[in-house]
Design goal:
The structure is a homodimer.
Chain A (H helix, E strand, L loop, with lengths): L4 H8 L2 H10 L4 E2 H6 L5 H13 L3 E6 L2 E6 L5 H8 L2 H18 L4
Helix pairs in contact in A: 1-4
Chain A binds a DNA duplex through helix 4.
DNA sequence: ATATTATGACACCATAAGGTATCCTTTTAG
DNA sequence: CTAAAAGGATACCTTATGGTGTCATAATAT
């Protein structure tokens, strides 16, 4: 149950995989359906799906003769959490801006 | 002024680079200082820094004989924005939970 | 002036990554 | 039963990546 941050970040590093995630956010899709959205072979897409599984960003299940993939939003949690550490720096800038504005327009 | 999402995600995909970002969040550091935190050569670290610059996640400036790197928190913005699209799925789950709770304890 | 410090610039390497093509197996429609 | 549909599994290929080593160069301390 470890965070598994690396596999997730690794999975997100490829544009094709990010696009796949966006597609799967709409609905569950078979390998052929996912493949139809790209100009690459089914085998290539299958590899991307496997990387996404390793990153815990999607789930795959076999139904009959097709392989259905579904988005696993929770897998993004570790990533978002890691990034949230840097929120403080944005906040600091907002605070600085707020202070600047207040100082700029002294009310009394 | 484009988002440049890919270079940022690419830069974040490596654990060493993520660690560098964390270090730089503390203070500006020279190449030697950054290198001291890892068990790899200065050249290797320098390459990582270059990738971080391409991802717009840090800034580098030459001061005298040293090269100082500083964190650029704003560079994370495109990444966070992209990820925020998926927040809705978490919210949906929260809503489902809330609904479940409300249903579970009918008040009247 | 002269080491020493801090890098830049390359050349080079092994492995990981992203893709393709081919062949085999499992389901399912006729 | 038989062919088409949907994938799985390999083997292979090219480039990108993450690293190392070596040598040259700009700043600095003595």
């Amino acid at each position: 149950m470890s965070p598994a941050l690396q596999p997730a970040f690794r999975a997100l590093a490829d544009p094709t995989r990010r696009e796949i995630l966006t597609s799967l956010s709409q609905r569950e899709m078979s390998l052929n359906e996912v493949t139809a959205q790209f100009s690459m072979t089914r085998a290539a897409v299958r590899k991307h799906l496997e990387v996404l599984v390793e990153g815990n960003l999607i789930h795959i299940r076999r139904q009959g003769r097709e392989t259905l993939s579904t988005l696993n939003p929770d897998g993004l949690r570790p990533v978002v959490d890691w990034l949230s550490f840097f929120d403080q720096f944005w906040d600091e800038k907002l605070d600085a801006l707020k202070t600047a504005i207040e100082t700029e327009t002294p009310d009394e």
